[in-house]
Structure formats: structure tokens, C-alpha cells
Protein 1
Amino acid sequence: MAADTVDVLILDLLEWIGPRSRPYAEVIEAWRTSCPRLPVWEEANRRGFVDRRHRPGSPASVAVSALGRAHLLSRRAG
């Protein structure tokens, strides 16, 4: 059951990030968890659904990867 919950929450995370990037600090504050049964942020990273970006002189940001967008579309289309 926890795996199903994580899968649903990953979809929520991808929708929350949306089509533009968000500041890394904002994403971590909202989505990082210390609960080993709900590793939403960690699992989204492991699956390659998010891209972390950092340009010198700018804050780090997070965006939905192409793989994440495809996953979101396939799961939310029906």
C-alpha cells in the first residue's frame, strides 16, 4: 500500500512543480520527508522524473524531466 501511496504522491509532486522550474529550497521544504515509507522526493529522483539545475550565481532549481512529463501524462490522461 505504501508503494501505491508514493506513486500517487509522485504524480502530485510533478504537478506541483508544474511546467516551469521551482527553487530547489522551496521544493525540498515542501516535499522532502524523513519517513522511510513515503520517500516521495527521493523516489522521484531515483526514477529520473525531476532535474536539478544550478547555474553559477543563481539559486538551484528543480524541473520536471522529460521522463517525468511523459509519466505524468500517461498516468493523468485517463
Protein 2
Amino acid sequence: MFVIKDLSKSFGDSRILKNIHLTIKPNHTTVIIGPSGSGKTTLLRCINLLEIPNSGTLDLNGDKLSFNGERVSKKDILTLRKKTGMVFQGFNLFPHKTALGNIIEGPITVLKQPKDEAIKEAIKLLKKIGLEDKKDSYPHQLSGGQQQRIAIARALSMKPDILLFDEPTSALDPELEIEVLSLIKELSEENYTIVIVTHKMSFAKEVSDTIIFIDKGEIIEQGTYEELNESPNARIRQFLNAFN
């Protein structure tokens, strides 16, 4: 269980997240939606501690961190970050490493996994995502969809408690988008714990157990797609229909 309590984040005088309270259920897919600039990506980055919250608490399966403006130790950051796997909009693969090299980097350097074991696990993941034949290819030799699938395999290689996806298809053409969305759908059906920021409402409807609607840094409403689509809040209904 991942519990977020009273989480706030500001950049200078701009308050991006305001007292966020959220419980992310295990083996569920939680989709975060909302207008541009509403704080969706910042929330993901706070969960992964790429951004340090100004206040509040994060509790991931018993590893709890509280924030009060004081410096957080690298050890505490790493302990929590090990439990999360982040997939970015722009792939963020190491350009000088092969697909295989990208996947084994984290397990070897962070988890201290023996190289032969890491390679064996990476090959399994490459098979899972349908790219075993691309193990020796460098990112520039891969399509955008293939690069994003490698990025997903890299996140999975860390055996995270929770997978975080930040608009994972926003940099892809529609054709390539389909293969990445199909892979994420497979993971959701395999009961991974997933949090995904997306603007694709048809996909959100298909994969989500819970949808969180954020606006101006606050959670306005949460529930199933059907519950939000019948919300008395006209703004939410309008948003869902506009992006279908």
C-alpha cells in the first residue's frame, strides 16, 4: 500500500501541489488526469523523489518519509526510490549503451545483482516486450516505440513495488503509441501496481481501476471512470469527453 498524506510542493512562490491525500492500492492501476499545469507530473516526480516535497509524508509498504523543509538523506531517498520504477515521456535511455546494457545497468549498480544474473533477467524482459532480437541495438537504432518498451523493461528490471508512467506515449506517433499502450495494458492485467499520467481518456477508461482528477494542484475527485463520467462536477465530465 502506498499512502500519501498532506503532500505539498512549491517552486519559488508557485504552489504546485496542495495538501495531496492519496492511497494507491496494490495490484491496481491508478490513472491521474487533469489539465496541463495541474501538477500531475510533479506528483509523480514527488512519489519517485525526483522532486522533494516541501511537506507531507510518503509511506510505501512501511518505508515512510516525512518532509518538513529539512534536507532528506540520500540513503532515505534511495531506499524509497528503489521501490519505484519511473518511465518518462522522453525514454531517457543511455545513448552509449545497448538495449541490454540499459536494462542491466540498474540491477547491477543499484541492486548489486551479479552481472550474469542481471543479463538472464534482462533477456526474459526483452522476450516479454517482444524485443529479444534488439538486445544489441543502441537507442538511435530503435524506433520511438521500441525505445519506450526498452525503458519499460528497464523499470521492470528493478522489480519495483510500483510503476510510474508519465505520459508514456506523448512523444510517439499514433502507430507506435499503440504498441506501448498494449504493453502497459498487459502489465495492468498482470496485477502490477501502476500509476500513470495520461491524456488518452479511452486508454484511461480501459486500464484504470481508479482515476484521479487533479486541477490547480488539488485532487478534485477520484473514482472509477464511470463514476467520474457521472460526476456532478461539469468540469470533470467536460474534460473526459473532450479527450476521448
